[in-house]
């Protein structure tokens, strides 16, 4: 991703873009446009607004090309632009401000255990904080196509129902496959806060899968 | 030993473990607990499976055509002005 061929081809691409080469620009849009659109859709709920966000982002990128110094990759730079614009639009649409430091501090400070306390033995039981009963292993055949598609729908629905911060972090990390540094950089989150959000999101998705896959309670 | 992770603690640090964000000492304690606890081994495996499946959630792979064309048209307009 950041090897020598990427850097030299990025340098060439940048030069082509700055000289107004339309093929270079189309190639860039085809390479990163879909990812930018998906990011926009994580923040704003309407496709129409997401489309506007993406257009604004490309406009902003074109205008800012001269200032791009190559400290990050073009991809990271573009995604940061779209995330910032999407966030601004989301703020306008919503009552709360996703990722404001106040909002985050409040969310991170709230206790939110990964599992309900009754999954573990209580202070008066023989082994406090040990599993009350072990998690039931999941069926080993989720490779059947139908089962997998349904499984992924459970996951997608769970993610859609998460609070904003958790939804966006798990979407970027686990659906999109971004690494922790990229997510923190683009969302301007500390690694700790990013991890708290990811942890809560993943715990809920795992729990939803458990409910779906295990028909009998443990 | 009192500094062993409890099962409850194991479910709280799993994300840090998977991100290689535990201190070397914590990582040792995490792995030691795994070696004797079937419940926590199962939980870790389920967390890994969750992440794997999440990575396969269907997603839009290309920009809607009309939007893409508008973006390129915007580029042409900017070039002219």
User: How many β-strands of chain B, per DSSP?
Assistant: 0
Order of helices and strands of chain A: HHHHHHHHH
Structural class of chain B: mainly alpha
Largest sheet of chain A: none
Total helices of chain B: the number is: 4
Number of separate structural domains of chain B: 1
Determine the number of helices of chain A (DSSP H or I, runs of at least 4 residues): 9
Classify the helix fraction of chain B into a percent range. Answer: over 70%
- CATH homologous superfamily placement of the largest domain in chain A: Winged helix-like DNA-binding domain superfamily/Winged helix DNA-binding domain
| Assembly category | heterodimer
- Round the Cα radius of gyration of chain B to an integer and report it: 23 Å
Low-confidence region ranges of chain A: none
User: Per DSSP, what share of the residues of chain A sits in E-state strands of 2 or more residues?
Assistant: under 5%
Number of self-contained structural domains of chain A: 2
SSE string of chain B, helix = H, strand = E? Answer: HHHH
Report the β-strand fraction of chain B as a percent range. under 5%
